[in-house]
């Protein structure tokens, strides 16, 4: 039976693609976002490709630069799913 658990790499890829799509829907270039949040556009490109993991801080900065809520940068197919699939033993006690 195939596991429905998402790997960290899969999560990085899904979030990266979504962030790119949201950025493009707001008609913003990587250069514009990079300048607004003080990062190299190449770093943003690597984030969007899933090569680098987005930090929560970076997602907040991107959302702010786009004038949106950070939750809009989390794809619908991941909302609620990450916590269900990646619980640790300490999470079960909460």
3D structure, described in words:
With 94 residues, the protein is mostly helical. It has a single domain (8-80), classed as Orthogonal Bundle (434 Repressor (Amino-terminal Domain)). It is built from 6 helices and no strands. Helix 2 (30-37) packs across helix 3 (41-48). Residues 88-94 have low confidence and may be disordered.
Strand content: under 5%
Q: How many distinct beta strands? A: 0
| The CATH top-level class label | Mainly Alpha
Number of domains: 1
Q: Which architecture per CATH?
A: Orthogonal Bundle
**Biggest sheet overview:** none
Q: What is the straight-line distance between the termini? A: 29 Å
Basic shape: globular
How much helical structure, as a percent, in the residues?
Answer: 55-70%
Mean pLDDT: 86
- The CATH topology corresponds to 434 Repressor (Amino-terminal Domain)
Low-confidence stretches: 88-94
Q: What is the CATH superfamily classification?
A: lambda repressor-like DNA-binding domains
The H/E string reads: HHHHHH
Radius of gyration: 14 Å
Q: What structural class do you assign from the helix and strand content?
A: mainly alpha
Secondary structure tally, helices: 6
